[in-house]
Amino acid sequence: MARTVVVTGAASGIGAATRARLERDGVRVIGVDLAGSDVDADLATPSGRAAMVEAVRAASGGTIDGIVANAGSAAQSSSTVRINFFGAVATLEGLRPLLGGSDAPRAVITSSMASFQAFDEGLVEACLAGDEEAAVAAAEAVISRGEEHLIYSSTKNAINRWMRTVAPSTDWAGAGIPLNAVGPGVIVTPMTAGFLATEEGRDMLAQMVPMPLGGNGSAEEVAELLTWLVGPANSMTTGQVVFIDGGADAVLRGPTAF
Q: Which one is catalytic: 85, 86, 116, 152?
């Protein structure tokens, strides 16, 4: 029987590429996005998250085999906190019971290599405390200080910490569900198009994210990794952030970060 995998942020970028890659393998994909997918839902809101879970439950018949929590935003606003952290956590926690009927349940998050860049500790702590409104307030404080560039990296730092905390737990590893994250470098998607459109933007990204192995990546390359992590062949890898960044992690953190 064909596997069923839920992919959030499925309408474009890495999500669309992952959907296409999974479908090439005969996987049934239930795509989730703001519009233009199988399930239209706003994961920045509690009501949208709840509606997504119920819509996936109905579309799947109550059983799924995998979750790719890919939906995200790079906007320098508090909405990024709601989507990147609380939307991802709600997706994984809300859909986890539907994995119970699978012979090979799997889950993976699209994080970022930005997770090890500068971040705001107060914002990360509010996320990990599960206090969405406090996290949004912390993001607004970051913006008021003129440090809005820290919001994205903070949300990715927080989701990695959350993942590594829960992955070995009874609910995940104890239930036979590997849970991991991928950390892309600069990927050519609509999210990065504005930066890549100008020489100044390209130079800035190259300095922030040096990628000696072939330069910027493609959504299809990330999709290959996500497909393996969410597939039955991955039976032992869990609690890991797998960087797919053309060597940026090795350049920026050096030989002892492992």
A: 152
Residues 6+ apart with CB under 8 A from 74: 80, 152, 191, 192
152 has catalytic annotation = yes
Residue 47 burial (C-beta neighbours within 10 Å; 0-12, 13-18, 19+): exposed
Question: Tell me: the pLDDT tens digits for 210-236?
Answer: 999 988 999 999 999 999 999 999 999
pLDDT digits over 245-257, tens only?
A: 999 999 999 999 8
The enclosing H or E element of 218 equals: strand 217-218
Overall pTM > 0.85: yes
Tokens of 213: 């192995």
Q: Which tokens hold the place of 13?
A: 């970028």
Q: Is the dihedral of CA 16, 14, 71, 234 positive or negative?
A: positive
